[in-house]
What does this fold into?
Amino acid sequence: MSVDFDSMPILDFAAVGRLVLDRSETFLRYSAGPESDLREGPSRDFEAGVNLPGWSVTTITPEPWCSGPPEDWIARRICKYAEPDSLAAPRPPGQ
It folds into this structure.
């Protein structure tokens, strides 16, 4: 399977907010990219010791009970799901 990187838009936060709010459910996955996902295979539940039937994601769609601005919910979910040590740029020594 090949991946068409040209069909993957780069969105700013306002565009992400519109995308989420225009759909009934939106999911987020952090990864090194589609080719890495294809190469490494689906996610694994290490506690249960089983491979999952796909890749792990989280929903970033605001819950109905959320009383704050939807953009706050979306931003919190994006930041909460991030795994800074696995995908962040290398830090300078001592930081």
User: Anything to note?
Assistant: The two ends are 39 Å apart (CA to CA). The beta strands are 27-28, 44-45, 50-51, 58-59. The longest strand covers residues 27-28. Residues 70-81 form the longest helix (12 residues).
